[in-house]
């Protein structure tokens, strides 16, 4: 038996059914390119009849120089009581010009009887005619058996008969779909075995995650002999999403020793770019990363408890199921009051600052003091890096505040949402210049709220001196009350996530600020974000000696 | 064989290891109460030695009147070469005063040899001594076998020997932990069988989701005979999280016909409150909901494809694996995102308002509109009651805003915590008096931050007219960003919890406000809190007719 499992990606079609997911044609082409580079076998590009965007995609994808992947167009079997050659969907599939096409047909008698309201013979003819027509047009035909598992549960004979109709008409593979996502792994395994016995072509698997079992069902199907896995990157898709090809590929390669994607290198089974691919798709789809996503999430190998950190430092496998490097991810040691010195050593080492005993003691004391005051550095690595630099004496600020003012003024109200007060912030900064002088900048801006106004004024003041800040955007803003029993006088902790698109590698970082005043807490987190951005774009990375000098601002 | 599966929740302990997760003591008590009401069997409240907050929790949890759940304190087996009775961790476990304790010990020879660096006999003695000591102190003892599956893979004899040490010393159950989350379901099933044959007490299962298989592994273990499932609400926890008890409970009850939580009612297997519970925990932990979360996510039964919507309208089960009502969730093509009409009926009944069809429609439409704007009423019952009153025409405001102003002014700073800006709020209110006149009150106050200053000014203006407000305190204040991809211009939702100590029964209530401006959102939530307080202390409860009159203010 071959250990190769084909990966069939439908991020661009089924994934785009997810709530909040939309891809431009350019997005789709970029993702196609990446999937090909990673070694995916099939890329389902869209449903050519459904919208003009998909039709344009199929035009333009021909110009890509794909090395490995086969692009597929997706559509339905012919309509009832229509000849295949007269069916607009099938015609659009042919016109898409892809070497392979995927057609989906009905397997569950409930759908045939209650939704389609056709007789079973016509359903079988719709499948057979469509596959045969596409085959005769020179296409490789992949047949998706919608609701196979529900259909097999309800009426196994009929369900298997629909598969035979597709296989006998020339489908190269029949893909068994758990369309509603309700099946359990042992049933999936049994039904896959039954399908394999019933037809002469191989079978594939297509799962949804409604029962939180899409990965398990996918693996069970492969272990039962399915040779193709359909799914989406990061599991995006309708309702609870499709099977996540990231988790499927990593498990198949690293846990079950199947061959997926590009040929294995350095024992990593072709999955060493999964983290990069996952983040690329999130970014392209403009979706928030899932921090705890298996294998590729930023928390997937993050260690918080002091005991765990201690053990991981002795022996990584003690609290890690795989080496994170195998999927292109990395270990992170979270800084926390509870977790002790091991965390600090790890972070300082990453910063290439000599973690001598004096620095260790200073950083540790400062972390304890700040965490006591309500700071949390575990999800604010940029603030932590600045803190370590400050303790090591290598931090140099790029601007100093003279003062800020924020004024919020409401009109009359009727206590409904939608009536927003007027908010204005003014700021006066002193910016150290290379010649030792100071530039004073005093600006005012409006905003949707106090933080937004302050951010706007701060940028207005800094941009002429540091134009590279135009590439920095705030991507998330979180507020949490720390000692809530004091009601509105409680301290608040603000966490800000920022994204820098250039120069250099795009990057994301998080910063933190704490104060009794939400505006001041936001100010502190904003400052850290901007200082981090400015240090990041200083080339080359300042050493301890160099950075004592004021930075060289860009010309205004 | 009994079909009952015990659910053991460790949201408050293992869940709090998740990145960005912190619970106040009050949060922990609220969650404990909810878990008990839902019928969870065990609630692991914390690690009493690890921090003073957990110690305080174990003090205060004794005052809760729990109906069903057993609270557990969590800790480690004794240290090496220490007598159990001299061990501080075990002593803290006893002192926590819970009827049951959970101790975790080492199962994997790698940890014993490489991390602990002790001999195997000492490891077995640490387990046996600790269990026996706690048992002798009158505790029910749950033994967590850390890394059982890795240990069983590496050295099955030794792994099983550690289980026997716990069972023979008196553990009532031995829980098999997939600590690193790396195991696959078929292996989990085999290892659970082996454990059951090796010891005389029952076994439980504790999974992590590093391979995206926590739910599948949990189900496999129960099918192999485990009688207890450990996990967290929404699967929060370190790295990729723990097994999600929501998905586990729903699958066990609805797919595998096990008995979980409270006795089944209306065929729903005790899981009909899972959606509410899931959202309550997200809100309390101030974490973003996962829209596509299986069973309980807001997209879990949302239909986007036109074909699917058509089919679902003909026959819901055509694209739904379960009836969403079974887990308290809703199909999204229905009129409202709120968990159902029953909420409206309940509120109206409490308010002695006739819940006729017209009112139902008005309230539902308003809820849909406000939820679309970012409101959430699930944890803001007081705001919801006010909304029902407004829709019924029985709401009468006790004060009207002319305007407010908030001014925040910082001095110079050195970017350290502790330097707070000066914040001042002024407010002008018009208060309707019994004789039909208006009293205008214009006050100014300082505060620790804009919300605190506004609250202070509001109270200063209202107290002379409504002295009963002196008994009302704000006990919690939460802010969350609703559409975070827009950075600081995102909308924020403020939730306020208030406590009224008199007159009448002491009570707690929650209110909500949404705006792009955090000050305005806070204003809306503050107003609702005060209106609710004033309506509450009006005796007798105003009826629809009475409340059309302005309230009778107390003498100033």
Automatic annotation (TrEMBL), chains A, B:
Assigned keywords, A-Z: Acyltransferase, Amino-acid biosynthesis, Branched-chain amino acid biosynthesis, Isoleucine biosynthesis, Transferase
Listed Pfam families: HCS_D2, HMGL-like, LeuA_dimer
Parts forming coiled coils: none
Record's catalysed reaction(s): pyruvate + acetyl-CoA + H2O = (3R)-citramalate + CoA + H(+)
Gene Ontology terms: biological process: isoleucine biosynthetic process; L-leucine biosynthetic process
SMART domains documented for this protein: LeuA_dimer
EC number: 2.3.3.21
Boundaries of every Pyruvate carboxyltransferase domain copy: 5-266
Any one GO molecular-function label of the UniProt entry: 2-isopropylmalate synthase activity
Listed InterPro entries: 2-isopropylmalate_synth_dimer, AIPM/Hcit_synth_CS, Aldolase_TIM, Citramal_synthase, LeuA/HCS_post-cat, LeuA_allosteric_dom_sf, PYR_CT
Pathway annotation: Amino-acid biosynthesis; L-isoleucine biosynthesis; 2-oxobutanoate from pyruvate: step 1/3
PROSITE patterns reported in the protein's UniProt record: AIPM_HOMOCIT_SYNTH_1, PYR_CT
Record flagged with keyword Transferase: yes
Protein family according to the UniProt entry: Belongs to the alpha-IPM synthase/homocitrate synthase family.
PANTHER family, per database record: (R)-CITRAMALATE SYNTHASE, ALPHA-IPM SYNTHASE/HOMOCITRATE SYNTHASE
The protein's name in its UniProt record: Citramalate synthase
Native organism: Alienimonas californiensis
């Amino acid at each position: 038996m071959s250990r190769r499992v084909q990966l069939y990606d439908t991020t661009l079609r089924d994934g785009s059914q997810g709530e909040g997911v939309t891809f431009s044609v350019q997005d789709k082409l970029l993702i196609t390119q990446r999937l090909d580079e990673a070694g995916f076998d099939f890329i389902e590009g869209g449903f050519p009849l459904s919208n003009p965007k998909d039709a344009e995609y199929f035009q333009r994808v021909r110009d890509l120089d794909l090395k490995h992947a086969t692009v597929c167009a997706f559509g339905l079997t012919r309509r009832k009581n229509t000849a295949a050659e007269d069916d607009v969907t099938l015609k659009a599939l042919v016109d898409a010009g892809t070497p392979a096409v995927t057609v989906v047909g009905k397997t569950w008698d409930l759908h045939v009887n209650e939704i389609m309201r056709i007789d079973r013979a016509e359903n079988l003819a719709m499948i057979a005619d469509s596959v045969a027509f596409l085959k005769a047009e020179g296409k490789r035909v992949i047949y998706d058996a919608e609701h196979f598992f529900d259909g097999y549960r309800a009426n196994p004979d009929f369900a298997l008969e629909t598969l035979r109709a597709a296989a006998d008409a020339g489908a190269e593979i029949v893909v068994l779909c758990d369309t509603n996502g309700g099946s359990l792994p042992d049933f999936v395994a049994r039904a896959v075995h039954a399908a394999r016995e019933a037809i002469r072509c191989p079978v594939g698997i297509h799962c949804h995650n409604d029962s939180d079992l899409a990965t398990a069902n996918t693996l069970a199907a492969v272990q039962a002999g399915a040779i193709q896995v359909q799914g989406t990157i990061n599991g995006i898709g309708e309702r609870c999403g499709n099977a996540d090809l990231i988790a499927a590929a990593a498990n198949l390669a690293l846990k079950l020793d199947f061959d997926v994607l590009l040929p294995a290198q350095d024992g990593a089974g072709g999955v060493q770019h999964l983290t990069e691919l996952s983040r690329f798709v999130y970014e392209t789809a403009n979706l928030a990363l899932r921090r705890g996503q298996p294998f590729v999430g930023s928390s997937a190998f993050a260690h918080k408890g002091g005991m765990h950190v201690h053990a991981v430092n002795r022996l990584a496998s003690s609290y890690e199921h795989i080496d994170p490097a195998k999927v292109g991810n990395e270990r992170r040691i979270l800084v926390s009051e509870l977790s002790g010195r091991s965390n600090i050593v790890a972070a300082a080492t990453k910063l290439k600052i000599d973690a001598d005993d004096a620095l260790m003691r200073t950083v540790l004391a400062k972390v304890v003091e700040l965490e006591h005051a309500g700071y949390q550095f575990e999800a604010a690595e940029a603030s932590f890096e600045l803190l370590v630099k400050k303790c090591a004496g290598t931090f140099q600020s790029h601007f100093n505040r003279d003062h800020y003012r924020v004024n919020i003024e409401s009109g009359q109200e009727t206590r409904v949402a939608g009536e927003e007060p007027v908010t204005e912030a003014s700021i006066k900064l002193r910016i150290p210049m290379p010649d030792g002088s100071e530039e004073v900048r005093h600006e005012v801006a409006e905003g949707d709220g106090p933080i937004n106004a302050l951010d706007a004024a701060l940028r207005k003041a800094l941009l002429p001196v540091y134009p590279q800040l135009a590439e920095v955007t705030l991507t998330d803003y979180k507020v949490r009350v720390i000692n809530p029993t004091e009601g509105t006088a409680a301290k608040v902790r603000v966490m800000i996530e920022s994204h820098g698109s250039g120069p250099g590698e795009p990057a994301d970082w998080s910063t933190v600020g704490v104060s009794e005043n939400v505006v001041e807490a936001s100010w502190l987190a904003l400052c850290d974000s901007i200082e981090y951005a400015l240090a990041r774009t200083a080339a080359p990375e300042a050493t301890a000696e160099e950075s004592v000098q004021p930075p060289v601002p860009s010309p205004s």
